[in-house]
Every structure is written in structure tokens, then in C-alpha cells.
Amino acid sequence: MTGQMMAMISIGTEKMTLSVHDFGKETAEKISVDDGEYAGLHLAGRNVARVYDAYADGQWVPDWEHATKIHALVTEVFGRDEDGSQYVPAKYTQ
């Protein structure tokens, strides 16, 4: 994923691109997301609309428990950078 502002990674920006890396061939192919019925909405609105539709259809959607795991992952990544423990099993999965 590439873009100008990494702080906006969870929402996206118009200039963000997605690529799939094939590690066996060491190639990367750009892909696009079909916005379909959401194309007329602002990027943040598209994300919210997808979540609401998934919830209405009974599909799994991120919840508070999921958010706390993501927060733990981010905290751990920053901690590993500070203390040099990159190769220790992740604590947030235990």
C-alpha cells in the first residue's frame, strides 16, 4: 500500500494505491477496489457504508474487542522498535 499520508491508512486517500506482491516472482501488481454503489460517497463514507451493510447482512464486523487487539499490536510494534525485541513471539495473540 502506498500513499502520501500514512496517518490516513485506515480511511484512505484518493492517491493511495494497492499492490499485491508475488514473493516467488518478486513482482508487484497494482489492484483496484470496485466502489460500486458507494462510488458517489467520500472515502470515509464508503468505508462506513460497507461496515453498515455487512452488519445488516449478519456478517462479522470489527468490534471493540477487535479494536483492542489492533491497539495492542500497534503498541507492541512500537515497543519492539524501542527495545530491539523484533524476534520475540507476539504478546497480543496470547
Helical percentage: 25-40%
**Helix count?**
2
* Number of domain units: 2
Distance between the termini: 28 Å
Q: Could you give the order of strands across the largest sheet? A: 1-2
The largest sheet is: 2 strands, antiparallel
**Mean pLDDT over the residues:** 79
Strand content: 5-15%
Which word captures the global form?
extended
Low-confidence stretches: none
Radius of gyration: 17 Å
Please tally the β strands and state the result. 2
Helices and strands: which structural class? alpha+beta
Please trace the helix and strand order, writing H or E for each element: EEHH
Q: Overview of this structure, please?
A:
With 94 residues, this protein is an alpha+beta fold. It has helices at 43-56, 64-83, and strands at 18-22, 27-31. It has a two-stranded antiparallel sheet. A hairpin with a 4-residue loop joins strand 1 and strand 2 (27-31). The chain is extended and about 45 Å long. 0% of the residues are buried.
SSE diagram, text form:
Blueprint: E1 18-22, E2 27-31, H1 43-56, H2 64-83
Antiparallel strand pairs: 1-2
Based on the model shown, name its key terms.
2 domains, single chain, alpha+beta, two-stranded antiparallel sheet, 94 residues
Provide a concise account of the structure shown:
This protein has two helices and two strands, in the order E-E-H-H. With 94 residues, it is an alpha+beta fold.
